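Budget justification, computational time. The allocation requested in the original proposal was used primarily to generate structure tokens for proteins on the priority list. As evidence of use, we reproduce two of the resulting records. The first is shown immediately below.
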Amino acid sequence: MGEIVQRLESLELIKQELAVKQQITEEMEKQVQLLKETNQLQKDQINISKETIKSMEDISKQKDLACDQKVKDAKPSFWSTVTQYGIFTAIGVVIGALLL
């Protein structure tokens, strides 16, 4: 009879341990699910960051093109330079002729 009581007590302890282990398993499954969700959010953030970087690179290229165009527009053209120096040369020749 004592052996049966001892086995029943042992069975009760095993049931309690099993319940605790089931709770631990459930908690770990919840943690795994949270980690999966966190991982997905991080992947999404990485993709967003990559898209942002690409957009910024495109904007930078457009700014560089605009800057290059401004520099090009600010430089006098060959013919305007020739015309300007031609006019000054002509004025100098006329003044020189008048002074003689």
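The second record produced under the same allocation is shown here.
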Amino acid sequence: MSSSTILQEPWSRGLSVMVRLDEVLVRRRTAFQDLLIGRNARYGLCLFLDDLMQSAQSDEALYHEPFVHPAMVLHPEPARVLIGGAGEGATAREVLRHRSVQHVVAVDLDADVVDACRRFLPTWSAGAFEDPRVELRIETIQATLSAAPDRSFDIILLDVTDPVLAGPSVELFTARFFAEVARVLTDDGVVVLQSGAFDLADPSLLRSVCATLGTAFEWVRPMLLHVPSFHGGWSTTMAAKRSPQTETAAVDARIEGLEGLRMYDRTVHRGLMHLPRFAAQALEPPGAVITGDGDARLITFGLDR
């Protein structure tokens, strides 16, 4: 399929971004969302869900490497990993760079998205779905968690859709959901989630995500990313039941042992562990805990610096 099309992505109040696709490889409505894979002159092949950019050929590593590796290297020997939002397979690809990994449960709600990415974006997964350590499940992440025994996973990576408080994925950012995540995480485990755009003009959403994580975890660490195809600042957030040591010789050695990376190294790791002053100040005010029940309370999650 080949044609030119223009998408207009809302960015924030009063702003939007227009993206021209010179070629559309697939566009269809799945059971859950609008799926589009096309080619842009600047970013190459791109994946869109509901007309919103999810991943681009030119810079997907700038998202997936810092999304996966900080959590993985903070654990002494991650063996069991859960991925919520298997999608294009790039998260699983990065997880498998760690030799200690024995079993990966990769979950996605939408089989059509996974199938289309395997067909049209094969370099994203780089064979990860064929690796015998990877178990692909088509189901909700809530169903996966509900069936999992206590302390089942060393690392949980939640690459779910954006945390829009009025959106369909709000349940995946609630205090009760994070309590269930904490139940299946090992005592020395780490969870990381995609926590949406970081807009200095209105950082309230990231404050809320951090505050809500703080109801289930002792340690919460937001990280800021720059991914050009996302058109602005982005964030991921780590959490753990107890504070890990983020910068040690052992952590450096684990980073040095990784091969084939495009951007993540010891220097990048240290940068991710320290918020810029402007961001730390923006996140100091209390955030509203997301309950999913229409009520909220303000708490400060206690950013350690």
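A brief technical remark on that second record: The longest strand covers residues 185-197.
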